[in-house]
Amino acid sequence: MIQVQHLTKIYPNGTRGLDDVNVDIQDGEFVCVIGLSGAGKSTFLRCINRLNDATSGQILIDGEDIAFAQGAKLRSLRRRIGFIFQQFNLTTRLTALENVLAGRLGYHNRFAGALGLYPESDIQLAKDALTRVGLADRMTVRVDQLSGGQQQRVAIARAVAQQPTLILADEPMASLDPKLSNVIMGLLKSFNQDGISVLVNIHVLELATAYADRILGFNQGRLVFDGPPSALTPDV
Ligand code: ADP
Ligand code: ADP
User: Which of 10, 51, 134, 137 has the fewest CB atoms within 10 Å around its CB?
Assistant: First the structure.
């Protein structure tokens, strides 16, 4: 479970990216985060994973605070969170399989595969994840030879192979053909059904209401809506 308490992020230029946000995410929830551009969605996700540092507040992951954790403690908490970026953030000169393995081991060595440095159990985990996202026949292809949709599926496999309790996805469809939105959301939903909590930033409201158990709405850094899709009214 994730408990966010009084989370505030003030950027060095004085912008309030987040303003006293309080929310608990239960295990296994599928949550979509909505709001206009600049509302704080990305800052919210990035603070949870410590890609951004919060200014104040707490982010408890199964009771342990990641907001100001350091060193080994921070690394161990971050391993429980898979992050999916709008721009995939893959290493394009590596194969799909190597990207997933690099994520799993946090190990960016392009000779590791050739040198057999990956434990067989990790290779199997990575292959299983790539198979789940429909890329069984593309595992040894360099990522720069894959389509955008395939690259995002590699990124999802990389997140899942880490065996996280939580997946954060920051506008994962924004760089893709809208036709692929249901593929990406469907994959996130299928991993959610295995028990992984999912938090997705999304700007297409119809997708949020179609997939989410719960919607968080942000405006100017504040949480202004927290409820099921059925409770959304047209003026939210
Ligand atoms: P969203 O993801 O909803 O579009 P963001 O979290 O990116 O919103 O941004 C929230 C607010 O914080 C916006 O006003 C944005 O301009 C500001 N912001 C985001 N990143 C930075 C930064 N690195 N420095 C200063 N302000 C930032
Ligand atoms: P997105 O929110 O879709 O990722 P943005 O254009 O808002 O794209 O942000 C791109 C990058 O610039 C992000 O790393 C964000 O943190 C940063 N950023 C956003 N707004 C500001 C800002 N007002 N000042 C400085 N950096 C910003």
Answer: 137
Q: What distance lies between CA 56 and its chain's CA centroid?
A: 22
**How are beta strands 2-10 and 56-61 bridged, if at all?**
antiparallel
- Tokens 């409770």 appear where? 231
Q: Give dist(CA 16, CA 139) in Å, integer.
A: 42
How high is the pLDDT of residue 102?
Answer: 86
The CA–CA distances, whole Å, from 2 to 94, 172, 174, 199 equal: 33, 21, 26, 11
pLDDT at 70 over 90: yes
Cα(37) to centroid of ligand 2, in Å? 10
Atom of ligand 2 nearest to the CA of 52: 16
* Interface predicted TM-score of the whole assembly (ipTM), two decimals: 0.77
Report percent pLDDT > 90 for the chain.
85
* Long-range contacts, 202-206 (Cβ 8 Å, 24+): 202/32, 202/33, 202/34, 202/171, 202/173, 203/34, 203/37, 203/171, 203/174, 204/173, 204/178, 205/34, 205/232
CA–CA dist 131, 146 (Å, integer): 15
Q: Is the CB of 15 under 6 A from ligand 1?
A: yes
pTM: 0.89
Q: Is the CB of 70 under 6 A from ligand 1?
A: no
Work out the angle between the directed axes of helices 120-132 and 181-193 (0-180°, nearest 10).
Answer: 130
Amino acid present at 202: I
Strand residue runs (E) in 26-91: 30-34, 56-61, 64-65, 81-84
